[in-house]
Every structure is written in C-alpha cells, then in structure tokens.
Design a protein that fits this description.
Layout lengths: L1 H16 L1 H38 L2 E5 L6 H8 L4 E7 L1 H12 L4 H4 L9 E6 L5 H8 L5 E5 L2 H43 L1 H9 L4 H41 L9 H34 L4
Antiparallel strand pairs: 1-3, 1-4, 2-3
C-alpha cells in the first residue's frame, strides 16, 4: 500500500515537473487518437452501409418455360455463401406484377395465360460472393437468365476493399506515432532522474518500485489523451451525422448510443494500454541497462 501511495505521489511529481512536455504529450496523444478514432468510425460506417446494401441485393434466376427450379434450389442450398433462397411461382410473380402496376394492372388480365416463368430469389452473405454464384448459375440448362446488379456489386467490392486498406494503414500509422510520442516522453522523464534511479537500484529498490511512477505517468497521459479525443469525436461525429442526414437521408449510418459508448470505451482502453506498454518498455529498457555490471 505504501509503495502504491509513493507511486501515485511520484507520478504527480513527474507530470508537474515537466508540465510543458506533459501537456504537449497529452495534446499530441489526443490528436493522434482522435485521428485513430475518426478513421475507425469512418471504416465502421462504410462497412455498415455496404453490409446494409449487401443485404438488399438479390440475384434473380429466371427458369426456362415449363422448367421448375428444383435442381437450382438443391445446388444453391448447398452453397455456403448463400444466406437465403426462395422459389417464386408464376402465380406469385403475376401477383407481384399486378401490385407494381397498380391502376394499370388491367393490362395484365388482357394477356390471358400467365406468361411468367418460375424464378428463384437468392441473397448472399457478402457482395463479393455474387459474381462467382452467377457464374455457377448460368451453366444450368434449365436457367433462362440471371439478373443482378453487376456494376453495383463491383463498385461495392472496390469501395469495401479500398476503405479497409486505407483505414487500416491510417490506424497503424496513428498507433505507431502515438506510441512513439508517449515512449519518448517517458524516456525523457527517466533520464531527468537518471542518477536518482541508479542510487535507488544500488540501495536495493526493486524494479517494480522504480517503474510504477513512470508506468502510471504513461497510463495517465494515454488515458487523458483518449478522453480528450473521445470528447472531440463525440461533438464532431454528432455534427457529421446531422449533416449526412440532411444531405443524404437514404444513407443508414451508425447512430446508436450504445455502439458509440462501447467504441469510446474501447478508445479509452486503447490509450491507457498504449501508454502503459510504452512506459513499461522505456523504463524496463533503462533499468536493465543500469543493472548491468560495469
């Protein structure tokens, strides 16, 4: 307990002794974590919008006249990329056509015999699964035509891949920059107390006893930066959501409070963990060198 009190007291002394550097580190960590959080939110929203559009994409398979979809249904149900499959009878297809035509549905009754064939509606788990599925479907002799949004599928796949690549690269850069800033701050603090730490090691102080204040300093700076970043993201994201809702009302972006709370909690944990790891590496590296025989 006494060691913990000492660590907290010494942590406050470390932060206020180099308050200018601490404030600079806090602001830098907050800025980098803000970029990290904004990029993550952007990536999540792109993935969310793409998944919603994916869920609405349907592959329509039209059978030849007098052909039933039994063979196609059996083959599709065994495909692991398929989420749902449903056969549409000519009668149901005619009812749908009448519902779409509305007041002009009388024209359908003039046709007499139902000209519509059997069809199959297929939904897949991911948009990139559609093109291989279509290739497998067109080879069936009983299949007359396969209709799907080919260009939309290709664009969605490209958007999903590009957003994942760009956001992943920015995330890695943000983590590395923030880690380097915190690491160098802790290293400067250690070297400012170099002689004091060496004396403490000589009189028998444990490495844990010496390391705790620096580890706490890194955790406080990382967690503080994460809190500032979360506060900035909350205001910015709320404004961005309102702007997108006004301009593009059809876009279904993430707005649920519980999702954002969990995201901000994860961001806070990331900042604290990153500060802890960087400070521990810095102080462990120094104490290992100081304990080597000369």
């Amino acid at each position: 307990m006494a060691s913990f009190k000492y660590a907290l007291r010494d942590t406050a002394r470390l932060i206020f002794r180099h308050w200018g550097l601490s404030v600079l580190t806090l602001i830098t960590a907050a800025s980098v974590l803000y970029i990290l959080g904004f990029t993550a939110l952007f990536s999540l929203n792109v993935r969310h919008v793409v998944s919603r559009i994916e869920g609405g994409l349907v592959v329509q398979v039209y059978m030849k006249k007098d052909e039933k979809p039994g063979v196609v249904l059996e083959a599709v149900k065994e495909n692991p990329t398929v989420r749902s499959v449903r056969a549409i009878s000519p009668e149901e297809a005619l009812d749908r056509l009448r519902a779409k035509l509305g007041n002009q549905a009388r024209a359908v009754t003039l046709i007499g015999e139902n000209p519509l064939p059997w069809s199959v509606e297929i939904q897949v788990h991911r948009v990139e699964h559609i093109t291989p599925l279509v290739r497998d479907l067109v080879v069936f002799p009983a299949v007359e035509e396969v209709i799907y949004s080919g260009r939309l599928v290709e664009r969605l796949s490209a958007i999903s891949r590009a957003s994942s690549t760009v956001s992943g690269g920015i995330l890695i850069m943000a983590v590395v920059i923030s880690a380097m800033v915190i690491f160098n701050t802790i290293r400067i603090a250690i070297y400012s107390r170099k002689e004091e730490i060496e004396v403490m090691l000589l009189i028998g102080a444990t490495r844990t006893y010496i390391s705790l204040p620096f580890v706490f300093q890194g955790m406080f700076l990382g967690a503080g930066g994460a809190l500032l970043a979360a506060a900035g993201l909350w205001g910015t994201y709320s404004s961005a959501v309102n702007a997108v809702r006004s301009a593009l009302a059809f876009l279904d972006i993430i707005e649920g409070g519980h999702i954002l709370y969990r995201f901000f909690l994860l961001l806070f944990a990331t900042g604290a963990t990153m500060g802890w790891m960087c400070s521990w590496l810095a102080v462990n590296r120094f104490t290992s060198r100081a304990m080597r025989p000369r």
